[in-house]
What we know:
Helix content is 66%, strand content 0%. By secondary structure, the protein is mainly α. It has a single domain, classed as Orthogonal Bundle (Tetracycline Repressor, domain 2). Helix 4 (55-76) runs parallel beside helix 7, helix 5 packs parallel to helix 8 and helix 5 (85-102) packs antiparallel against helix 9. It is elongated and about 65 Å long. The mean pLDDT is 88.
Amino acid sequence: MNEKFFNLSEEKRVCIINAGYRIFAENSYRKSPVSEIAAEAGISKSLLFHYFRNKKELYLYLLKYAAEITFTYLNDYRCYEEEDIFEIMLRGLTAKINMMKKYPDITRFTLRAYYETDAEVADEIKALIGRTASYGANSSKLKLDPAQFKDGLDLEMMYNDMYFASEGYLWENTRSGIIDVDKAERDFRKMINFWKLLYLKQE
């Protein structure tokens, strides 16, 4: 990768990154035309290849950057400073929805990348996912006190239920192409209040 990419203005770099996320999110790796990424970014294909040697290098950079920027947003919203599972979920969802204001197609891209099977990139994707798995909280790392929850509740299943429901919400919103951050936060709070009634012991 050419270091001159990082000498571009942030606005131009974000434009190129977002063009890559959108095109790769809508197509498989093999069927994603680099020419369309360049056109959407407002640069020539040859200039794009000046910054990235080939499509594979661009793709893997975008995947690595997605993990890094997600961690940055989660850290900025202090998700890792909380122990309350519901506050963690709220902060995490708020962080992600605000991240998508700047990178609208990042969630669709990462989801498609997760299931990408093209031999040219599959091994690198698997390695990157393995290295970045620790970026996010998961049920095994959370300090959940069973005494706070209803008797007999499977805490891992509870966490997975909340996690996949929230990711599904984000997925549906990215598909629409319009992200209303204020509405999303209101919806998240309603979801979390519902989960509290569903899972916590009621005094």
